[in-house]
Structures are given as structure tokens and as C-alpha cells.
Specification:
By secondary structure, the chain is an all-alpha fold. It contains 17 helices and no strands. It has one domain: MFS general substrate transporter like domains (Growth Hormone, Chain: A, Up-down Bundle). Keywords: Cell membrane, Membrane, Transmembrane, Transmembrane helix, Transport.
Length: 432
């Protein structure tokens, strides 16, 4: 006789959904670790790939060498948009796992590439993977913490990601100097992809319910500024508000684009500039790591400061600090001055990066926030492509230093746009 209880074991009670960093600490810390692995996948290229372009594949034109950043930026920017939309439609976790699956072939392609076309293909996959994984970890952390400590949460997220970029750039520089440009540096990427996929598939939990909870309890701003941005917006309306119409969202989008424009320049041309000055691969690796290292560590503080001081002026000042750092890169001709400039560039980026994400989270309604984050990141990571193209064309025509001066001027102008057009988005500080 069949036991009626067989196969009908009661399901475990669902975990109660609550907002807050402390209440969701375990999952938050796990997502920080996953984002560090995402950053490591990017960091494996920072030191080695520009040298691979010139020394292994003999690409002499700067524009040709920068094609891998161009395709990476286009792929990542486009994928960011879909990551936000798909996260709302299918859930955050499936998008995260898909991003890691796409990352798995990247280091293998870099190791085995017989020609530059393979490097381009690897960077298309890397851009898609980064768009899915990094966007989703951002969205999931915003979901978990709620509105009170959003800046601090984004600071931790970006610190983990770019701290890992820096550590991996440094490690790959020394591995390349000791064992050659391939395969040793890219074996780190193999390990990162395997670990990231395993954690995301088996340990990370879905967070879309947290966004639904926040949407149900959403409180309008006291100044009525966002009353017209009700929760029922189409994808086209969210794109228009984030990109052009809403002053804070659109100011953040252009600042994000310019920020990554200068990061694309740093990624593609700084190692070439430093090598031309006679620096060793190891010292180039130190400089390539210093910029994201300062950027990563400082975000532990700047994200939290934006919760206390506000978003607007931290963003504007950060763009201006970056412009000063770029100017010093253009003026410098030795390791010491370039190290100071790289630290300034990292500090300015740290002031901007988590604060822009927090500002998007402040303004966008929880019901369409994931889509707004994806659109902001579309513009921001489109800066990689714009920066690679602009820097390559100017460097080919006028030299690397002229390209750096051009980007420094654009960065200063971006800070001015934020100062003039953006309002303070942190509700607790809006009346100050």
C-alpha cells in the first residue's frame, strides 16, 4: 500500500523578505565576493593585452590596438540595457548565471589566439559577460539594502570589483615578466570564471522580491520632484528619462560615459606610453594596478560619504580631480610623476563611480530601477568604445599625449555639466 506522505514532504518555509544591509549581510557579502571575481576577469587584460597587441601581433597603429576595447565597450554597453530588462522579466539570478557561462571561454581564447581576430572575439564575449554579471550584482545589492545606505553599498560593490581589477593587473604584470605574455597571466581568468559560475549557480539567491517590497512601500519625495515619474513607465519612457529628460539621471549618464571614456584611454594607451618611456613590464604593471587600486579602496569611503554629504558635488569634484590626474599623465615622463597622476585619477574615479549608481537608485522608482540602472550603464560603458575610438584617432594623428589632453578637457567639461544641471538626489539631504 502506498504511503500518502511519500513525495509530499512539506516545503521549507519561505525566508521573510526584509530590506537592509545588516538584515541581508550574508547574501550581500557573497555578492561582493562574486563581483570581485567579475573584476578579476577584466583585470586579467589590463596590463598584458596592450603589450600582446604590439609585441605578439605587431599592431603599430594605436587605433588598431584599441579595437579590442572598442568592441568590449559596445558589447558591454548594449548588454547592460538588456541585463536590466531581463532582470525585471526573468529574475536577477538567471541573468547572473548566464553572464558567467559566457565568461568561461574568454581566457581560453586569449591563451590560444593565433591572430588578433580571436582577441576581438574574446572581448566581445567579455563585454557581454561583464554587462550581465556586473549589472546584475549592482541591481541585487541595491535590492537588498533599501534606500538608507545605498551609497555605502555601491562603494563596497565597486571597491570589490575594481580592487580585483587592480590586484589582477598587478599579478598578471609579474606573471608576464616571469613566464611570458601567455598563457600564465590568463590562467587566473580560468579560475575566476569557474569559481564565479559555481557561486552564482549554487549559493546566490534571487533578490527581485526585495525590489517588489520596496516598490510597495515607496515614499514620494517631500519636494514632489518625482511625482510625474510614477511606477508604470514603458521601456521607451525609462530610456528617455534616464538618458535625456530627467536632470539628475541624464547628468549621471553623461558623467558615467565620460568617466569610462578616460578609463578606456587609460586601459589602451597608458601601457604604450609607459613602455615608450623605457619602463619594464613589471613597473608598467604597478602603474596599471595603482589607478584601479586607489579607485577600488577609496570607494569604501566615498560611497559612504555620499550618504552623508550628498551625491552632486562629490560627482562634480571627482570629475575635476580626474581631469587633473590626466593632465599630469600628459605632462609626466617618469615613474614617480605618473604614479602620483594614477593615484589622483583613481581617487577622482572613486568619488564618482559609486555615487553615480547611488544617484540612479535615489531617483529611479523601484518598479523600473533595474531598467534605469541598465540604461545608465549602457551610456557609462559606451564610454569605453568612445574613449577607445577617440583616443586611437587622436593618438594616431597627434600622439598619445595629445589624446590624453583631449580626454582631460572632456572630463573637466563633464564635471561642469553636473555642477550646473544636476540637483541633490539624496532625500535626506535635499533640503540642505
Amino acid at each position: 500500500m502506498t504511503n500518502p506522505n511519500v513525495g509530499n514532504t512539506p516545503a521549507a518555509p519561505a525566508r521573510p523578505i526584509v530590506l537592509g544591509l545588516r538584515q541581508n549581510a550574508a547574501q550581500f557579502i557573497l555578492l561582493v565576493a562574486v563581483n570581485a571575481l567579475v573584476g578579476g576577469m577584466l583585470g586579467q587584460e589590463r596590463t598584458v593585452l596592450p603589450l600582446l597587441a604590439t609585441r605578439t601581433f605587431h599592431l603599430s597603429a594605436y587605433t588598431a590596438a584599441l579595437t579590442y576595447i572598442l568592441v568590449f565597450g559596445v558589447a558591454k554597453a548594449a548588454t547592460n540595457y538588456f541585463a536590466g530588462t531581463w532582470s525585471d522579466r526573468y529574475g536577477r539570478k538567471p541573468v547572473l548565471v548566464a553572464g558567467w557561462l559566457i565568461a568561461v571561454p574568454v581566457p581560453l581564447l586569449l591563451i590560444w589566439a593565433p591572430n588578433w581576430g580571436w582577441i576581438i572575439a574574446a572581448n566581445v564575449l567579455l563585454g557581454i559577460s561583464q554587462g550581465l554579471t556586473w549589472s546584475t550584482t549592482v541591481i541585487m545589492k541595491i535590492d537588498l539594502v533599501g534606500p538608507a545606505r545605498r551609497g555605502f553599498a555601491m562603494g563596497l560593490n565597486e571597491a570589490a570589483g575594481y580592487g580585483a581589477v587592480a590586484a589582477t593587473a598587478l599579478a598578471t604584470g609579474y606573471l608576464a615578466e616571469a613566464y611570458g605574455l601567455r598563457p600564465a597571466p590568463f590562467l587566473l581568468g580560468v579560475a575566476f570564471a569557474a569559481l564565479g559560475l559555481g557561486l552564482s549557480r549554487f549559493v546566490v539567491r534571487e533578490t527581485r522580491g526585495h525590489a517588489h517590497l520596496e516598490a510597495a512601500n515607496h515614499v514620494a519625495r517631500a519636494d514632489g520632484r518625482h511625482d510625474h515619474l510614477h511606477h508604470e513607465l514603458s521601456n521607451r519612457q525609462v530610456f528617455a528619462q534616464t538618458s535625456f529628460r530627467e536632470p539628475a539621471l541624464s547628468s549621471a549618464s553623461q558623467a558615467g560615459l565620460v568617466n569610462n571614456l578616460n578609463d578606456g584611454l587609460a586601459w589602451g594607451l597608458f601601457p604604450v606610453l609607459f613602455a615608450a618611456a623605457g619602463l619594464s613590464v613589471g613597473r608598467i604593471g604597478v602603474l596599471a594596478a595603482l589607478y584601479p587600486a586607489v579607485w577600488g579602496v577609496a570607494q569604501l569611503f566615498t560611497g559612504a560619504l555620499s550618504d552623508r554629504w550628498g551625491r552632486k558635488w562629490l560627482i562634480a569634484a571627482g570629475m575635476w580631480v580626474q581631469a587633473v590626474g590626466l593632465a599630469l599623465i600628459a605632462l609626466g615622463d617618469a615613474f614617480g610623476m605618473w604614479a602620483v597622476a594614477a593615484a589622483l585619477l583613481g581617487a577622482g574615479t572613486a568619488m564618482v563611480y559609486p555615487t553615480l549608481l547611488a544617484a540612479i537608485g535615489d531617483v529611479a522608482h523601484p518598479a523600473w530601477r533595474a531598467r534605469s540602472v541598465g540604461i545608465y550603464r549602457l551610456w557609462r560603458d559606451g564610454g569605453f568604445a568612445v574613449g577607445a575610438l577617440l583616443a586611437g584617432v587622436v593618438a594616431d594623428a597627434l600622439g598619445v599625449r595629445a589624446a590624453v589632453w583631449t580626454v582631460a578637457a572632456l572630463t573637466a567639461a563633464s564635471g561642469l555639466i553636473v555642477a550646473v544641471r544636476m540637483y541633490e538626489t539624496h532625500q535626506r539631504l535635499e533640503g540642505r
